[in-house]
Amino acid sequence: MTRVLAGLVVLTLLLGQLGCRSAGGPTSVGVEPGQYATAFDEAKDLLLARQFTLERVDARAGVITTSPKATAGLATPWDTEQSSLRQEFEDLMNQQERRVRVVFAHAGEAPAEPGEGDAPTDRRDSADPLEARFEVTLLRVSVPGTRVESSAIRMSTRTQDPELSRRGVGGRDRIAIATDDAFAARLARDLQSRLARAATPAGP
């Protein structure tokens, strides 16, 4: 009975927390001329504050990317990537990760593919307004050869392909299954708030 009550309390707190994470909205933020350096640093800092590991930090090209960050949904309530209770359950039942990419581009400029023509010119020299665009990729992790036993997880087994082992192929596979626009929108709002605070003159 005590465990049930404790579970209900945790679920209630979680639902209240999720209620504050409004989903939807734009996934980009306008950056005024002369504000690029501040916006780039703030975008980098907000990702670090959410415990993402930065993989690429290129101020010249205007690109920031992170390594995939794992989360277990309801089992890791300190993670804030989820924007709904459904996402909490999906991350709990599957091994899922999120990778974030931030691209600073001119308004209306077509997005470039990752690593391909991110910026033909140095963004630091731009005198035009820019957009900070957030892209979040949801990855599902699978372990080749794993056979999940539905009646008891502890009885799950794993097979091994000798040929793949000889070639050094194995480990975990990551498959991009969707984009998480809800989380991207929340990151955009975070950056917008940070830029507003940075633009507010300090008090006397």
Write the layout of secondary structure elements.
Blueprint lengths: L1 H18 L8 E4 L4 H14 L4 E5 L4 E4 L2 E3 L13 H9 L2 E11 L23 E13 L3 E2 L9 E2 L3 H5 L6 E7 L1 H19 L5
Antiparallel strand pairs: 1-6, 2-3, 3-5, 4-5, 5-6, 6-9, 7-8
Helix pairs in contact: 2-5
Short summary of the structure?
The chain has helices spanning 2-19, 36-49, 85-93, 162-166, 181-199; strands at residues 28-31, 54-58, 63-66, 69-71, 96-106, 130-142, 146-147, 157-158, 173-179.
Account of the protein in words:
There is one protein chain. With 204 residues, this protein is of the alpha+beta class. Helices cover 32% and strands 25% of the residues. The chain has one domain. It is built from 5 helices and 9 strands; from the N terminus they run αβαβββαββββαβα. Strands 1, 2, 3, 4, 5, 6 and 9 form a 7-stranded antiparallel β-sheet that branches. The chain has a two-stranded antiparallel sheet with strand order 7-8. A hairpin with a 4-residue loop joins strand 2 and strand 3. Helix 2 packs across helix 5. It is globular and about 60 Å long. The N and C termini lie far apart (56 Å). 24% of the residues are buried.
